[in-house]
Amino acid sequence: MHHPAMSRRRFLRTALATLGAFSVRRRREALAAPPEIKLPDSSPVETFDFESKGIEGWTTVAGQWAVEDMAGTPSGKKALVQRGTKNEFNVIVAPPGPYTDVDVSVKFKPISGREDASGGIVFRFNDGKYYVVRANALEGNFRLYSYDRGRRQLASASVKAPALGQWHTVRVVALGDHMQAWLDGTLYLDHHDSRFRSGRVGLWTKADSITAFDDLTIRGLRQAAHESQRWTLAPSMTARNMAVPHEGNRMT
After folding, report:
1. How far apart are CA 36 and CA 161, in angstroms?
2. Which residues make beta-bridge pairs with 224?
3. Would you list the domain boundaries of the chain?
């Protein structure tokens, strides 16, 4: 026969222990979160909503890119759509730049794809070499790669796969060798890599991905501006390579 007072004490001890463990875990998660890096507020901004102007002046590296009428776009009635399905990667590069440091965001909607259903941001594109951060509706990961005659995975985070047929937002900030990337407003990747130092910004899909893009925003510093302005770091503790790096992994 259980004594009521003893049962209550046992319940209270269990509840307090559970609450204590939860609080410790939350404190550790807070301590592990890296501070967000950012460009100066005065950095020049370029925006592309594809409403009044198409992709004149853009450079198509691979793929079938065109501005199309589309219902339900985040702004207006048009979006940039990539419909090529036979290339390893599909890349288009915007006219501005080259930039050293950038803060880039874009909205993308994965429409279809059996092998891949991805969308991403290319940055520091120069002579066919670049970084890309991408999300894939067919995989529960969010990844940063470098590309130089082949793609190399630099960092990866587990995420809920972005839903097909819905709009999502990817953002990347690159300051010197420090890079951070967000998916739908959550910071997932924090990595350092110095192989590419400047270049232009673009958009990316893989294989048979048919993907729409809208509201591309580029805040960037060119070389002269970079030398005269300092980037800032939100006051907090520092952390390097929040996502586990995979320097030796080839593309997946």
Report:
1. 23
2. none
3. 39-233
Q: Could you please state the CATH topology (level 3) that the domain comprising 39-233 is classified under.
A: Jelly Rolls (2.60.120)
**Would the pTM of this model clear 0.85, i.e. be above it?**
no
At a CB cut-off of 8 Å and minimum separation 6, what does 1 contact?
none
Instruction: Compute the chain's Rg from CA coordinates.
Output: 21
Tell me the C-alpha distance between 117 and 133, whole Å.
14
For 87-130, the pLDDT digits (tens) are: 999 999 999 999 999 999 999 999 999 999 999 999 999 999 99
Q: Which of 209, 230, 187 is nearest to 64 (CA)?
A: 209
- Measure the CA angle with vertex 205, ends 36 and 142; round to 5°: 35
CA distance linking residue 132 with residue 236, whole number of Å: 27
Which has the closest alpha carbon to 173: 51, 35, 62?
A: 35
